[in-house]
Amino acid sequence: MRGEAEQRPGRVAIVPGLAFVLILAIAGRWMHQLLPGGWGKLLGEAVLGMGIGLLIGNAVRLSPRFQPGIQMAFGLILKTSIVLLGARISLQQIAEIGWGVVLLILLLIGLAMGLTRMLAGAAGISPKLGLLIGVGTAICGNTAITVTAPVIEAADEEVSFAIATNTLFGTLAVFAYPLLGRLLGFTDHFFGIWAGTAVNDTSQVVAAGMSYSLAAGELATAVKLTRNALMGFVIVAIGLWFHRDSEAPPCPGGRSGLWLKVKRSVPLFVFGFLAMALLNSFGAFDALSEMTGRNLISDLTGTAKFLILMALVGVGLNTRFDKLRCLGVWPLVIGFAASLTTAVTSFCVLRYVLHV
């Protein structure tokens, strides 16, 4: 992934690649809508879009003139989508779910990221890949991976493998969680919180919860949205931690350059995400929706999802299978370990500490 300091391509240079990405994104959405209902829920359109990009990018040698637009898809386009996603997050979601569950979510986030970081170091693979797998498992699946990637300047291959790993184990969880819930006799309330705290992606949480019961699905969705609401704050912490060794110049007057370090470590789009979440928390989008007669939150979320689809098409086009093969099986082992650890830890805390 290109660094922020690189010179941006001219407007004309981005047109061929960006137009190509747009066409593939539209095709991916159309193909996703043709899938049967069950498959459509399991296989998100963003994953399908990335798959299309992977196939075309590896089967056809694209002209270099496409490259600036493809890079922009995973640059400005992705960052814009992240800012827009903040409109569907509110602090009220955190308060409504209960602070015991919120603390459990924070515990699982720290546990998953710490575990994947440690295992990545032991396996000798990129710590950035380990971190991406960790945030995908602990926060909100593929969205968290795509949001975190530019913050830590991850390579496209690392993003692709993290998304593939997250999708694999999240899809398995859709089938395994309801089966385990039935075998162990979980109540709808317990299952909903368990699935909401431990299953990876939002669509996978909804699928697992609704397959158990309507009540479990509604509760699982509420818990999952709480995890999503914490994403911006966690990404800020990741940026500061990942760039902790960088030196920020002192401010005038001899004061420390903490704010400059924050600006260097945490990209501007993350602050945009948090600002949108705060506006939503204070009802700004509801007021504007009444004034305009539109559901602005729905409009902004729909736009963000399509921009993410474009971004992941770009990731697929820029990812080579030969580089993925070099990563080996360790990312899959790490993803499995993270998924299993969060599932078991969530179960134990809910059953024996919170007494849900």
Short description:
The protein has helices at residues 11-34, 37-42, 45-59, 67-85, 91-97, 99-123, 127-152, 156-184, 188-198, 202-212, 214-229, 231-242, 258-265, 268-281, 284-292, 296-317, 321-326, 330-353.
Tell me about this structure.
This protein has 18 helices and no strands. It is an all-alpha fold and 356 residues long. It is globular and about 60 Å long. The protein starts with 10 loop residues before the first helix and ends with a helix.
Please provide the ordered H/E string of secondary-structure elements: HHHHHHHHHHHHHHHHHH
How much of the sequence lies in strands comes to: under 5%
Kindly, what is the distance between the CA atoms of the first and last residues, rounded to a whole number of angstroms? 43 Å
Binned, the helix content reads over 70%
Distinct helical segment count: 18
What low-confidence regions span 5 or more consecutive residues with pLDDT below 50?
Answer: 1-7, 248-256
Secondary-structure content class? mainly alpha
Write down the overall geometry: globular
Averaged pLDDT: 82
* Rg, nearest Å: 20 Å
Helices and strands, with pairings:
Layout: H1 11-34, H2 37-42, H3 45-59, H4 67-85, H5 91-97, H6 99-123, H7 127-152, H8 156-184, H9 188-198, H10 202-212, H11 214-229, H12 231-242, H13 258-265, H14 268-281, H15 284-292, H16 296-317, H17 321-326, H18 330-353
Looking at this protein, list some descriptive labels.
mainly alpha; 18 helices; 356 residues
